[in-house]
Design a protein that fits this description.
Helices cover 37% and strands 10% of the residues. By secondary structure, it is of the alpha/beta class. It has 2 domains: 1-94 and 393-437 and 442-499, Aspartate Aminotransferase, domain 1 (Alpha-Beta Complex); 99-353, Type I PLP-dependent aspartate aminotransferase-like (Major domain) (Aspartate Aminotransferase, domain 2). The longest helix is centred in the last third of the chain and has 37 residues, at 341-377.
């Protein structure tokens, strides 16, 4: 079985770890021969006032060939969308078209400097202006800032705009209401902005409990934050009633745009009654992300809130010149310069390459892929919400745990042996032993079938050979790690072994 799984359709064959680069080569190995010294020689310790290193700098002694092989091997061990299926629920890990990279590397974009004079960066400013226009049209919310560097940063930015608007009207408020299906960044952003978090339960259908929401809303509520479609992959048909109830107490309705993939070209948060929205460009518009970056989380708002957006945004003058513009009541900067410009270039390329019809097809294909997988898997695993889903859905491994002692974590680790990155597990917490799966619109049918076949085989294996799952993975460069110990006792520095 191990040999069979070593080469799988989900990704490249796994190869075991090697030595650290410091353990390669030898004292005689060299890579670069420096030129002869053509400046006066300086004793470093004297030049630095006696604070130089007291021992020789530890650098590896390797040849160029050894360096290439070492880093190529590390790349082979890495997992990414380019090497295999990455169905990470609520994170949209989809393929980044190479045309995005080509555009980002154009000299006029890659070589631009944020401190250049406005007249020398008209092309870059126009791109940002056109992206602002596109996001306004897609969201139904005309005020747009491109500054936030990630989704959570966008949440915080929108909440700061809400706070500024409430304060300006002489009505400061203290709390923000969120559902129990909210992304973990929502309550964190609320706290960062100085508000108290009030959490309301979802109904048995996985949607907002309207009665609980109305009971939590009062004149001290600053905002209600909601992801629609929500974190269990369902679109809330009560949305107009929800935003109406929020507005009735003078609060703002905020849409977490993490799941925009499902509704592109179909409906717009602005039309649902939301006052603000962040869009994860690095999810919805395919720019690469993971490992902490890069990312971008532009915020779109109503005309009423546009005057509070961070400065600067890009404006178009009557003479056709693009210029940085400070909104009249801006909350100030939330990011240096104009944000993560490289991500903006990639996203704009994606939007222009697909156009309106193409973006609509993105949503249609994402929803079709998710429903196809859901139907294939709902008999092998429990399906808490058996209805048409949007771009993602949540299974439960509760039955496997009760009957065979196999947890969702075991299923996730076993998927690695089949060459697939596991989906999100144990989130949202309202689903016992949750498996949160988002196939995205970029995966072919063959990949979806291979993934479904693997999960079905793993469910069968749980009933017949549960110990195989308990000890998985078996074919990865390293076996199952003690994640709790790794978090408590991280080893962040390589130490040479004792001789």
């Amino acid at each position: 079985m191990t040999e069979q799984l070593a080469h799988t359709p989900g990704g490249a064959p796994n190869r075991g770890p090697r030595e650290a680069i410091y353990e390669l080569g030898g004292a005689e190995s060299t890579c670069v021969l420096p030129p002869e010294l053509d400046v006066p020689e300086v004793v470093l310790d004297e030049a630095l006032g006696g604070v130089a290193r007291t021992r020789a700098l530890s650098l590896p002694h390797v040849t160029e060939l050894e360096i290439m092989r070492h880093y190529s091997h590390l790349a082979d061990m890495n997992f990414g969308v380019d090497s295999g299926f990455y169905p990470l629920g609520s994170c949209t890990m989809k393929y980044n078209p190479r045309v995005n990279e080509d555009a980002c590397r154009l000299e006029g974009f890659s070589g631009v400097h944020p401190l250049q004079s406005t007249e020398t960066v008209q092309g870059a400013l126009e791109l940002m202006y056109r992206l602002q226009e596109a996001l306004a049209e897609i969201s139904g919310l005309p005020g747009v800032t491109l500054q936030p560097a990630a989704g959570a940063h966008g949440e915080l930015t929108a909440l700061m705009c809400f706070r500024a608007a409430h304060t300006a009207s002489g009505d400061p408020r203290k709390k923000v209401v969120i559902p129990d299906t909210a992304h973990g960044t929502n309550p964190a952003s609320v706290t960062m902005c100085g508000y108290d978090t009030v959490t309301i339960p979802s109904g048995p259908d996985g949607l907002v409990d309207l009665a609980a929401l109305k009971a939590a809303l009062d004149t001290d509520t600053a905002a209600f934050m909601l992801t629609n479609p929500n974190t269990v992959g369902l679109f809330d048909p009560q949305i107009l009633e929800i935003t109406e109830a929020v507005h009735a107490v003078g609060a703002y309705a905020y849409c977490d745009g993490a799941n925009m993939n499902a509704i592109l070209g179909k409906t717009r948060p602005g039309d649902m009654g939301f006052d603000a929205l962040h869009i994860n460009l690095h999810k919805t518009f395919s720019t690469p992300h993971g490992g902490g970056g890069p990312g971008a989380g532009p915020v779109c708002v109503t005309p009423e809130l546009a005057e509070y957006l961070p400065s600067p945004i890009v404006a178009l003058l009557d003479d056709g010149t693009f210029v940085p513009h400070d909104p009249s009541r801006t909350i100030g900067r939330v990011r240096s310069f104009f944000g993560n410009f490289g991500v903006l270039v990639r996203a704009y390329t994606y939007v222009r390459a697909l156009g309106g019809e193409g973006l609509t097809e993105v949503a249609e294909q994402a929803v079709l892929s998710a429903n196809y997988l859901k139907e294939r898997l709902k008999t092998a695993y429990d399906l808490p919400y058996d209805r048409v889903c949007m771009h993602e859905f949540v299974l439960s491994g509760g039955r496997l745990k009760r009957e065979y002692g196999v947890r969702t974590l075991d299923v996730a680790k076993r998927l690695l042996d089949h060459g697939f990155h596991p989906p999100t597990v144990y989130f949202p917490q309202i689903v016992d032993e949750a498996l949160m799966i988002e196939p995205t619109e970029t995966e072919p049918l063959s990949a979806l079938d291979a993934f479904a076949d693997a999960l079905i085989a793993i469910a069968h294996e749980a009933a017949t050979h549960p110990d195989t799952l308990h000890s998985a993975p078996h074919t990865t460069p390293v076996r199952r790690l003690d994640e709790a110990r790794a978090a408590r006792e991280p080893i962040l520095r390589w130490t040479a072994p004792e001789k």
